[in-house]
Amino acid sequence: MTESQPKPQTVADDKKVHGVVAEFTDVDSLLAACRRVRDAGYTKADAFTPFPVHGIDTALGIKPTILPWIALAAGLSGTTIALLMQISLNGQTDLFEGIQYPYIISGKPFISLPAFIPVTFELTILLASFGTFFGMWALNGLPRFSNPMFTSPRFDRVTDDTFFLFLDAKDSRFDEAGAKALLGELGGEYVEPVLEDDSSKVIPKGLLIALATVICLSSIPALAVLRMRVTKSSSPRFHIFPDMDFSPSKDAQQTTTLFADGRAMRPDVPGTVRRGEMDWDLNFKTGIDMDKLASIDPPRAAQLVAMQSDVAVDGEDEVVSEAGADEPAEEQDGEAAEASEPTAETSAAPVTADNTPWLSENPLELSEEALARGQQQFNIYCSVCHGMNGRGNGLVNRRAQKILATTWTPPSNMHDPTLYSDVYPDGKLFSTITNGVRKMPGYASQIKAKDRWAIVAYVRALQVSQNASLEDVPESERTKIEREQAEVQAQLKAAAEAEAAKAAEAASAE
Amino acid sequence: MSHKAVAIKPADDPAFQLPASLAGLSLPMIIGGIVALVGGAFFSNSAIGGRFGMSSYLVAYMYCLTLAIGSLFFVLIQHLTRAGWSVVVRRVAELMMIMVIPLALLFIPIAVSAYTGSLYAWSVEGYQADHGIPDAIWKEKSLWLNPNWFVFRSLIYLTVWCGIAAWYYRGSQRQDETGEITITEKLQARSGPAVIAFAFCTSFAAFDWVMSLAPMWFSTMFGVYIFTGSILSAHCAICLFSFLLQRAGAMRDEVTVEHYHDLGKLIFGFICFWGYISFSQYMLIWYANIPEETHWFYTRSTDGWFNVSVLLMVLHWGLPFAGTMSRHVRRRPWLITSWAAYILVLHLIDLYWIIMPEAGVGLGGATGIIATLVCVIGMVALMLGLMLKLAAGTRVVAVRDPRLGESLAFENF
């Protein structure tokens, strides 16, 4: 075995010394030397070994790393980011104003921690690993392409069988002769200076070209995507995930073989209560005092109950699929006939005199908020026909008049005395909005019951507003209104005078 | 990774003997344990009634059993991975694992209860009618959950555990005398199949003995859930017992801060594993929200149990997770041992939370809790007494294990 001994390191005049290195043949002498170097006050010393050596950190006086704290901080950031991200994506755009875009998923609360934990966990781990990995880079001053130690000709054997102890020239105690003497004294062999790496810092051209090529090539997919977004193609779309593009799930109006009735869209399970509708009873949903109705007109009450209750709706579905739609109605008619023979026909015929026990009072708790909601809903849904002021002259009506539409029934004027609450109770108004009247369609499917009641309240307010006297206004507001009134009158007067003056001027000019 | 050879003491060194101060505790513990166990079970049964008495017994039984089979798994996995570091603490685990043999005898009351209907709801006459369970479903359930088949399966689990434990215990004991390396090789070679058999038995025992307390409920993760508690508490017990043995004077030079550090790492890891498994089980059921699955958690989120659930989340995971995270904690034997003792208490609360709600008496009140505690203390004392008696006749370290030197010189980075 012939191993060529490398030449000892020599220092030319123009070379800078990076430090001094010495070789040791075994762990124990290295550790002893490390301790001595530490005790001599050197802080910028390092040991290089072919394998990890226990206790070398303390021997060299290396302080415990702060890496765990970096990892902890990064991990906690992951936790925080994940939670905030999920909370905001679940509709909470403003922490202080609550859910801005309530989007119900699986009937869970908007902010439900159990569902957030997997993502939170993953992001915590991810950021903690990044923190550890890149924190280690930062603490070690990586990436670094060359270390001056490699200039030492004997240093290669550090991965093989030799231990090295290195004293850095940056240490405040360092002077070359003293360091050499110390290392020699400690039993180090081949005590040699390490030269600063003065090789060119310019990145080789070949490497730069290769890097540029890789960057260019890696932009091809992105460019291809960009191009495809602005060009047309006659070939069908390319499906990367066909099972996601063609999901086996059903759309609302499709059919399915899974259920006997063939409907893909399933009716609510019996007893389902919609979110926020827990305390809406039947009176609230129909505008009718159901107890009274049951005593006056039991069949109609039963029918209403059937229409509103999910249980019966479900039952009705089954009947429809098995026996036809008319049966339940006929049955009810039959029962009514049995109960009172002479009026058997009248129950089927339209009721002429309205004896329905309408709710005379709005069940909604009236507040400024409720009225504002009513106004908003009225302006969205009602004003197009009835007009913003409720006089029945909305845009649709005006257009119908303009084109002389023959089948048009003009919308009611809300200020007609027949629509006042003494003759047209709140419940009836509610029912009209719900089910429609004449040409007006029912709005039950578009406007929630609570909002319909808010509209009723707003219509009442509208009615009052158009025939109001100053006495209707609260005391505190009166002076304000009187002042405004005076201002408006003054303005009107001024405008009239100005016009008169103008006319006079024009007349005199002629 | 060691570079320092440590001299191994001769096999008859007093450091390997059970200290006399501990050996003397053996008999009082056995007698006291039996008295407390019987008294506690009887008290629990008469004071609360219903299925509470036997449930208390089951809590005590599962507490000791999870420690024993957790130790069994510990021993198996050391052989499977040919671990060197753990040799000095392995004998402690072996002494714990061999307790499955007396525990097999203590299973008799549970086996009897399957016939008398004093523990499992499914064995109570009229359970199907009371809960309106359709015939077709109950017929299939009964195919699995009927007393004869239940007891037969239980016998299989106990036989497998006892067989594996006895074989590994005997091997290790024989090596103490002869020092044959072939014994270690044989133990290692069989550890793979043994772990597989262990996994099946543990999973099915968890399903049969604990999950079937709520007969209509099912969770495929339940076996793993019981296993996590088992392996976590076993590591804690190994840590605690090693510490106590050292305090009493045995193996003072053998078990070093490095071994506590490693045990601490594993305890920390299994704390996370427990949190991970118990949360996964909860989240899957919570998300799917299917009535027949949710009722188990519904029971545990009402009637006072909710507080226990939250407490477990915070005290069984959050607090010890933060507490044992630091290397400085793990490298202080008394600190990590305190955490180990703490986890052993929490493991009991965990089992109480798993088993007791199904007894149908709520939290059980102070009387119920005390009665159960007496039961648990009784059975633990009985097991400790037997362990000490066994340990007095042997050594507390596997003195001729070929990897003992490696274990003695073991160092963490």
What this model shows, in words?
The complex is a heterodimer of chains A (510) and B (413). With 510 residues, chain A is mainly α. Chain A is 50% helix and 6% strand. Chain A contains 19 helices and six strands. The radius of gyration of chain A is 44 Å and the shape is elongated. In chain A, 16% of the residues are buried. Residues 311-352 of chain A have low confidence and may be disordered. Chain B has 413 residues and is mainly α. Helices cover 74% and strands 0% of the residues of chain B. Chain B has helices at residues 20-23, 26-48, 52-80, 87-97, 100-106, 108-116, 127-130, 135-144, 147-178, 181-210, 222-248, 257-288, 291-299, 305-323, 327-330, 333-355, 365-392, 404-408. The A-B interface holds A 27, 51-54, 68, 106-108, 114-115, 117-118 and B 1-3, 279, 282-283, 286-287, 289, 326-327, 411, 413.
What are its keywords?
heterodimer; A: mainly alpha; Cytochrome Bc1 Complex, Chain D, domain 2; 3 domains; four-stranded antiparallel sheet; two-stranded antiparallel sheet; 19 helices; 6 strands; 50% helix; 6% strand; B: mainly alpha; 74% helix; globular
Summarize the topology.
The complex is a heterodimer of chains A (510) and B (413).
Chain A: E1 17-24, H1 27-39, E2 45-48, H2 56-60, H3 67-89, H4 113-140, E3 163-168, H5 176-185, E4 189-195, H6 205-218, H7 220-230, H8 242-245, H9 282-286, H10 290-296, H11 298-308, H12 310-323, H13 327-339, H14 344-348, H15 368-386, H16 395-402, H17 426-435, E5 436-437, E6 440-441, H18 449-466, H19 475-509
Antiparallel strand pairs in A: 1-3, 1-4, 2-3, 5-6
Chain B: H1 20-23, H2 26-48, H3 52-80, H4 87-97, H5 100-106, H6 108-116, H7 127-130, H8 135-144, H9 147-178, H10 181-210, H11 222-248, H12 257-288, H13 291-299, H14 305-323, H15 327-330, H16 333-355, H17 365-392, H18 404-408
Helix pairs in contact in B: 2-3, 2-17, 3-4, 3-9, 3-10, 3-11, 3-16, 3-17, 4-9, 4-11, 9-10, 10-11, 11-12, 11-16, 12-14, 12-16, 14-16
